[in-house]
Write a structure and sequence with these properties.
The chain is an alpha/beta fold. Helices cover about 35% and strands about 20% of the residues.
Length: about 220
Amino acid sequence: MIDLVLVGMSITDVDRRADLVAAARSRGGSVAFLQMGDPSLSLELTRLADAGAEAITLVGVDLGPLAPAHSWLRRIAGHWWRERAGSRPILDVATRLVSSLEDLDDALATCRPVLGTEPGLTSAAWEDVTGHRHQVLICRGPRCTARGSEESMRALIIGLVEAGLGDKDVLVTHTGCQFPCNQAPVVSVQPDDVWYGDVDPEVSREIVTRHLVGGTPVEGHRLPR
């Protein structure tokens, strides 16, 4: 018997947990997440292996924008496989991410085994803190998520791309609850110590053009400190 694990790749997939769980259960499988969701992929693989699983198939799911590349699924799976103490199950990974749960069966038809030779979790390119001028912290706590922080995040990142700003200029980071929840969606800009509330997509674009490019905070949505 082969155990199926649907792996949520992006933070949107954490928000869509119920959909992933339903799709996995309909196929006798389970779910795991690559980031900001429980269980992590490593913990779920360990649980299944400890329970005696002989073969596990992983399918990466990307239901939202800005998921890590498919290669990260193989990196994490390969790292777990190398580090696993004791017996290891056969581990297969679908060769592409699915952006619709209706495509799961097609993805399951194209899998490759994990061999333990996959790239590791470190690289010389990831050694140093980036030289960014600003770090934008986007709250993805429950209230901010419910009030549309995903759409705000998408607009902000698109705005940064259109302005020609990359990680060396502005480092965008998703966070858990930042408070104050009544002002959701909340975004903060560091090291300026500027906090914004009620950040919808239009305000996100203003934050990019007026604050991150122009250097002037958006006063209409700035929260008192």
